[in-house]
Amino acid sequence: MENARLEELRKRLEDSLGSAANMEALNEIRVKFLGKKGEITRLLKSMKDISAKERPRFGQMVNDLRAMAEAALEKQQKELEKKLREARIQSEAIDVSLPARRMEYGHSHPNTRAMEEVERIFIGMGYEVVEGPEIEYEENNFEKLNIPKGHPARDEQDTFYISGNILLRTQTSSVQARVMEEGKLPIRMICPGRVFRSDAVDATHSPSFHQIEGLVVDRHVTFSDLKGTLDAFAKELFGPETKTKLRPHHFPFTEPSAEVDVSCFKCGGKGCRFCKGEGWIEILGCGMVHPHVLEMCGIDPSEYSGFAFGVGLERIAILKYEIDDMRLLYENDVRFLNQF
Ligand code: DAH
C-alpha cells in the first residue's frame, strides 16, 4: 500500500517537472514536495505511524524518493538556467558582419560652391586669393577709395559703425587699399568675403552678404585687359556662348567705370522670365583704378595702372542655381540645401 502511494507521488512529481517551464514553476514544485509542509516531508514525518518492522524499508524508499526529487529539481533548474542564458545571448547578439550605420554627410552650401567656382576661375588666370578683415577702418572702406566724408556715395551704403572710425566693411573694395599699401607690385588678386550694410531683409537684400573683389595693378594695364578678363570669366562661369556687355557707370574709385551684363544663359539673349525679358543680366561693377586712389595708396599712377571689379557672390549663386529668393541662402533649411 505504501509502495503504491510512493509510486503515485513519484509520478505526480515527474509530471509536474515535465510541465515546469520557468523558475517560478520549479520553485512551486520544490515547496509542494520538499518544503516544510511538502508531501515528501510529510511522508517522512509519518514514519512513526508505521510498524517498526516496515519502517526501515519504507524510510529507505522515502529517502530515495527525496533524493530523486532533489536531483531532478536540480537538473531541471540547471537546464532552465542554460536555456535562459542561451536566449539572452541570442537576443543580445551583435552581428559584426552588418554594415555600419552610415554617417549623413552634408555638402557645400551653394554660396560656398559659387565662391569656389569664382576662385577656381581666377586662380586659373594666375590670381592670388587674399583675405581682409570684416571690421575695417573707415579710411580703407571709404577715404582711400575716393569716398571722402560727405561724399554722396556714402549714403548708398548704410553703414554699421562700431566706433568713430571703425566699421563693418560695406564692400570688399576696402581690401584694395590694404593690398596696394603693402607695396608689392604687380598685383593680381581676388578677395572673397563678407560685407555688411544696414539693409532690410527682402528677396534681394540682406544686412550681411558676400562680395568678391578683384584687383590688378601693373605697368600697361588697359581697359581692354579688363574687358578680356571679365569676358573670359563670364564664359567660364556661365558657358562658352556667354556674351558680355559693358555699360558706363560711376564708381568713385574707378575711372572710367562700368557695369557688366552677361547675355542670359537661359534664353541665350532672346529675353525670358529669367532675365525679365531683357536678354541681359547684370553681374558686376568694374573700372580702371582711379589715379588718385593709386596715389593715396602709395603707387605712382604715371608708372602703373590697374583695373578692379566687384561681384556679389549671392547674385552669382542665385543666377547659377536659379534661386529666386536670397533669403533661402541664409535660412539653412536642409530641404532647400539638399537640392544642390
Ligand atoms: N564695391 C562696389 C559695391 O559694393 C562694387 C565694385 C564696383 C567694386 C566697381 C569694384 C569696382 O572693385 O571696380 O557696389
Sum up the structure in keywords.
single chain; 340 residues; alpha+beta; BirA Bifunctional Protein, domain 2; 2 domains; seven-stranded mixed β-sheet; three-stranded antiparallel β-sheet; 10 strands; 41% helix; binds 3,4-dihydroxyphenylalanine
Q: What's the SSE blueprint?
A:
Layout (H helix, E strand, L loop, with lengths): L1 H18 L3 H12 L4 H7 L9 H37 L18 H15 L3 E2 L5 E3 H4 L19 E3 L2 E3 L5 H9 L4 E10 L11 E11 L4 H16 L5 E8 L2 E10 L16 E10 L1 H6 L8 E8 H8 L7 H4 L2 H4 L3
Helix pairs in contact: 1-4, 2-4, 3-4, 5-10
Bound molecules: 3,4-dihydroxyphenylalanine.
3,4-dihydroxyphenylalanine binds next to β9 and β10.
Might you state the CATH topology name of the largest domain?
A: BirA Bifunctional Protein, domain 2
Going by CATH, the architecture of the largest domain would be 2-Layer Sandwich
What is the approximate shape?
rod-shaped
N-to-C order of helices and strands: HHHHHEEHEEHEEHEEEHEHHH
* Total domain count: 2
Residue-averaged pLDDT: 93
Provide a descriptive summary of the structure in words.
It is a single chain. The chain is α+β, with helices and mostly antiparallel strands and about 350 residues long. About 40% of the residues lie in helices and about 20% in strands. It folds into two domains: about 1-90; about 110-335, 2-Layer Sandwich (BirA Bifunctional Protein, domain 2), CATH 3.30.930. It contains twelve helices and ten strands. It has a seven-stranded mixed β-sheet, with helices on both faces. The protein has a three-stranded antiparallel β-sheet with strand order 2-4-3. A hairpin with a 2-residue loop joins β3 and β4. α2 runs antiparallel to α4 (about 55-90), α3 packs antiparallel against α4 (about 55-90) and α5 crosses α10. Bound molecules: 3,4-dihydroxyphenylalanine. 3,4-dihydroxyphenylalanine (DAH) binds near residues 173, 285, 286 and 310.
